[in-house]
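Case study 2.
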Amino acid sequence: MLEDLTEITALHSLRSQHETLVSVKEVSRYYGKNKAVDNISFDVKRGEVLGLLGPNGAGKSTAMQMITGNLAPSNGQITINNFDILDKPKNAKANLGYLPEQPPVYKELTVDEYLTHCSKINRIAHSHQRDAITLAKERCGLNSMSKRLIGNLSKGYQQRVGIAQAIIHSPAVIVLDEPTVGLDPRQIREIRSLIRELGNDHSIILSTHILPEVTATCDRVLIINRGKIMVTETIIGLQQRIQSSSLIVAFQHPPSNDELSQFDGVLSVDKIELGRYRLHHVPEIDPSENIVNQSVNNNWRLTEITPEKLSLEEIFMDITCTENEDIDMTTKAEETV
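Prediction:
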């Protein structure tokens, strides 16, 4: 029977990578007059790990609660594997596995006792329960922990037990809320590796405010702030955003600031020290080649030309802080009126 479950899992991985398993369309959620989630839309495909990234209070938890069917949206539609979360909640939730920030484990039970309980809750046929438990333990590295009390396990292994309960019924979609919070570096590395492995067969939505989590585990990132989606981008696309929009240049015989300002695309020139400058330019135009050519022609003796790269943290702060400043300015203007 274990072989049958393994074959089913393998068949899942062979399905089209373009199959949409989560669809969120124009979803909002109000608490009184406060709009916690503001008209968000996105899809998640099979075999994709989506990182839901944002500062505390951005609306991530509210969005996760709506996706998992624990909170009804004020408007909009959410479907899980083509089942509407409101119209067909049992079908939709049968295709969901959920790990909240605090793993819902019973610490007085052994790992086997707890996973047996979870298999019954998920209505796995009695004849399939043992094989489902064995497969979940294998995938989460829990075989040696079967008879251990959950309360005696490390936090990393308790997190693994939480993931095992989320995948025990082989759901199409796995939702993980802050899966590595409170873990030590080794445990974090192990859980990230497990998430990447699970991403081969499922759609995974991973909520976090930890920036390295995104680049380490996700295929695509969705940055949310003040309830709105600010950026949705693949990791490759995000890396392109990180590419330089400024250059550090140095010369033995430096030109004047005015001469450097004349290069196509250059917005401003900052003098760092004698003969060394930072050139800010529009992202679409890289003046490097022209600078090299002119340095040769004019005997400026270029000694350094280095593109500066923004970190993911700098991009994140730029997006979220700019949005917050815009909202604050709008609020002040409304108050003045």
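Residues 17-95+172-237 form a domain with the Rossmann fold fold (CATH 3.40.50.300).
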